Automatic annotation (TrEMBL):
Pfam family name, one: Glyoxalase
GO terms assigned for molecular function: metal ion binding
Alphabetized InterPro entries for the sequence: Fosfomycin_Res_Enzymes, Glyas_Bleomycin-R_OHBP_Dase, Glyas_Fos-R_dOase_dom, VOC_core, YwkD-like_dom
Domain VOC: from-to ranges: 4-127
UniProt protein name: VOC domain-containing protein
The keyword Nucleotide-binding is annotated on this UniProt entry: no
UniProt keyword terms in alphabetical order: Metal-binding
PANTHER family, alphabetized: FOSFOMYCIN RESISTANCE PROTEIN FOSX, LYASE, PUTATIVE-RELATED-RELATED
């Protein structure tokens, strides 16, 4: 029925700060950027891969994110990488704090987490 995830929508509190984070630190390529004056809102389409995107939105005064990791709803984003240790080194060189690397007890694969500027947990998972 479903082929893949097309996009993930993220609402940020500071558009310019998040735009820099996702484009310069995480190095996602900009597909399109739109400003909607009637909503005082930006929408930034970012390529994650050939088949998936992030839609980064800004809205005036968005409510805060639920901060409990076990709350109902989307828990985190996870991106696959070839080498978690190398990716952590690259993120750390750009002043992104990462949690210690762990090994998934079920798969034996390395993974860790870091956060975007609004505290959204992002996982990197070794394939």
């Amino acid at each position: 029925m479903f082929k893949s995830i097309h996009h993930i929508a993220i609402i940020c509190s500071d558009y310019q700060r998040s735009k820099i984070f996702y484009t310069q630190i995480l190095e996602f390529k900009v597909i399109n950027e739109t400003y909607r004056a009637e909503r005082d809102s930006y929408k930034l389409d970012l390529a994650v891969s050939e088949h998936s995107q992030i839609e980064l939105f800004s809205f005036p005064h968005p409510p805060k994110r639920v901060n409990q990791p076990e709350a109902c709803g989307l828990r985190h984003l996870a991106f696959s990488v070839d080498d978690v240790q190398a990716t952590v080194a690259q993120l750390t060189s750009k002043s992104v704090e990462c949690e210690p690397i762990r090994i998934d007890a079920l798969t034996g694969k390395a993974f860790t987490f870091f956060q975007d500027p609004d505290g959204l947990p992002i996982e990197i998972y070794q394939i």
